[in-house]
Structure formats: structure tokens, C-alpha cells
Amino acid sequence: MTDSKTAWITQEINSLKEQGLFTHIRTLSSPQGAWLVVDGKRVLNFSSNNYLGLANHPRLIKAAKKAMDQYGLGPTAVRTIAGTMDLHLELERRLARFKGVEAAITFQSGFTANLATIPAMVGKDDFVFSDRLNHASIIDGCRLSRAEIIAYAHNDPDDLRKQIEAAPKTGRRLIVSDGVFSMDGDIAPLPALYEIAQEYGIPLMVDDAHGEGVLGKGGRGIVDHFGLHGKVDIEVGTLSKAFGVVGGIVAGKQDIIDWLRQRGRPFLFSSAMTVPDVAACLAAVDLLEESTELVDRLWSNADTFKTGMKELGFNTGQTQTPIVPVMLGEATLAQQFSRRLFEEGVFAMAIGFPTVARGMARIRVMNSATHSKDDLDLALQTFAKVGRELGVI
Q1: Catalytic pick from 57, 241, 306, 371?
Q2: Domain 57-290: which CATH number of 3.40.640.10, 3.40.50.2000, 3.40.1190.20, 3.40.190.10
Q3: Checking DSSP bridges between strand 248-252 and strand 103-107, what pairing results, if any?
Q4: What is the pLDDT, as a whole number, of residue 1?
Q5: CATH number of 21-51+292-389
Q6: Across residues 82-108, what is the average pLDDT?
């Protein structure tokens, strides 16, 4: 029996199913890695953000277990009352050193890091200049701030300049861009954004969620990649992708980090990262500081896969990173392609509206340092088989 109060939800769900936009969530019953058990089937994994294979790394697991024996599990309180442990402060010191910045602060996730930072920097009667393809967490942070959001054309410094010139000169202002755009794998033109920020005296914020552990020397991120240390005011990142754990980070100038400790609402009103998470993240920093081997392997694997896909005739968009969008157009085709890949033993998810624009559906392939040459060969063979079967190539 349908509840009249929520009948509209049933109608919306049915509409999503009819359009091929209803998301069916698969279930994992194995650790993250090159191979997974998904819905009871062993499949080759190209869906996870486990860029470096750290989600199941023995050193991270050992560090988490050791910390639990010493500290227990959870902080049980917000950071400002009784939830800040010396482990939290040590992670923040280590991350600041790793990133080459004055200070860093951690949050429960990369999403909450954006929700904390943007409303602390701008408010009502202020302005945010935001790349049109920025992540949902940036968009939501802008909305929460109540500042006016002025979108500029994707990765277009000239349009950013035009929007700044046309906007009122009153109030505080902020320029914000993703570093690596997660659906297309392209990189923000950060040097040009920095020059514009300097010219107009506007703070510059970059969300480096898919650059942490991927770009720069040993995964130090997009600022290191472009040699802009000390020039980008705010770097937001996540510890749940390349770092293999969970959590968010904001890094940058000391006064901005101090301000977030006073006004970052997820910091003030939600409990901190748990003990094993913090300890595992510290172990991840150790690994990345010791060697660039995992990052180098990630990029080598990505180059092999991208070259193979282009030779097969697939459209992989504008990617500049290990993220490889296999452009298919319609959501129904993307979902059919993903299902056939899964049946053939490859796990790569379809991405459609509203995550990407209508008509821009794709399979998003996430490369990893954990993939072997045989894994990559098998993936390319499977994509070729399904691509020909469905008339994509």
C-alpha cells in the first residue's frame, strides 16, 4: 500500500528506473585491492579510489591495531571539548610537513572539510568564483555559506577574469577549484588561477582530493606538481582515496588553519577521526615520505591502460591523470556496458546524471598501483570484447 505522503518518492524512483538512472549499489565482501569479491563474484577492480593500494597495506593495518591497543577506538567528543588526542596533532604536523605548508587541520572527510572551509571564508553578501564542474562538496559548501556563487567556465582562466570584472567589488571573495576533476581526470590550470588571484587580491582555494597521493613528488599534490608552495592559500584534501583510510585535510597558512579551529562547524560540532584511522594515516605518510615507488607504479599503469584504450578506439576524454573516463553518451548504454564488464569479470561502474551532465555518461576507470601487467592486459581485452559487442568501437 502506497503512503500518500511519500507517493512522490515512489514516482521519482520509477522515473529514474525508466530513464536508466537508478543506481544499483553492489556489495563488497573482501578487502580493497586489484581483485575484489563483489556480489559474491571475484572480479578485477577498476572502480575504487585506492590509487596506491594502501587500503589493505600491512603497515597501515599494523599501525591501526597498535594504536587501538594504546588509545582505544573513538575520541567520543568534539575536538574542542575532549576529543583532541595527541595522535590528531601529530597527524596534522606530519601532513603540514608533507605538504610543505605552515599548518594543517583534519576533518572527518574531504566532504566535511569543504563544508567547514567555505562558510568560514565567505558569508552573506560575499562572492565565490567556482569552476562550473566543481565537486558536489564544494557546491554544498558554497550554498551553506550563503555567499553568491558565480560559476566560471570549466578550467577557463579568461572566463574567471571576466566574471571577477563583472561582479560587485564589495564584501569578501574566494576563488575555488578542484585540482583534479574526478569525472574527467583533467587538472585545473592552477598557475593561471594563482596569477588571477594575486592580481585581484582574492584568496585561492583548491580541492586536491584526487591529487593527494597522486600528483607531485611522492604524491604531495597539485601545489607541489606546479611548484606553487606558499602561493595557494587553502589546500583541501581527503585521506580516503590514495591514503586508503578516511578523513579530510585543510592545509595552508597558519592564520587560516587557526580560524578553521574557531569557525569550522564540522570541527566544532562533530567528533574527530577515530584512533585507528589517524594511526593508519600516519603510517601512510611514512610510506609516501620513504619512497615514490607506489606513485611511480600508479602512473606507469595508468599510461599503459590509456594507451591501450586509445589504440582500441575508445574515447577517453581529456584525462591527464590515472582517472580514465570511457565516454559512452547515454546512461542506458553506460549501465549496459558496466553490466557486461561485470559478467566478464571486470568491475568498472557506470557514471550518469546527475553526477555528470545528461548525454555525458561514461564508465569511469580508476587505475591503481596494485594492478599487475596481466591485470591490465585482461582489462583491455575485456573492454575490447564488450566495446565491439555493443558497437562502441
Answers
A1: 241
A2: 3.40.640.10
A3: antiparallel
A4: 57
A5: 3.90.1150.10
A6: 97
Phi then psi for residue 327, to 5 deg, are -75, 125
The yes-or-no answer on residue 47 being catalytic is no
pLDDT at 2: 62
d(CA 364, CA 160): 28
Residue 78 bridge partners (DSSP):
271
pLDDT tens per residue across span 13-72: 999 888 877 888 899 999 999 999 999 999 999 999 999 999 999 999 999 999 999 999
Q: What is the mean pLDDT of residues 338-344?
A: 97
Per DSSP bridges, beta strands 204-207 and 173-178 are parallel
Q: Would residue 182 show up in a list of annotated catalytic residues for this protein?
A: yes
List 210, 225, 306, 371, catalytic entry: 210
Q: Cα separation of 206 and 155, whole Å?
A: 12
DSSP 375: H
Strands (E), the chain: 35-38, 41-45, 103-107, 127-131, 148-152, 173-178, 204-207, 234-238, 248-252, 323-329, 346-347, 350-351, 361-366
- Examine the pLDDT at 231 and tell me if it is beyond 90: yes
Instruction: Select which of 47, 130, 145, 182 is catalytic.
Output: 182
Amino acid at 247: G
Q: CA 119, CA 112: separation in Å to the nearest integer?
A: 11
Mark whether 145 is an active-site residue. Answer: no
Residue 299, amino acid: W
Q: Please tell me the predicted confidence (pLDDT) of residue 207.
A: 98
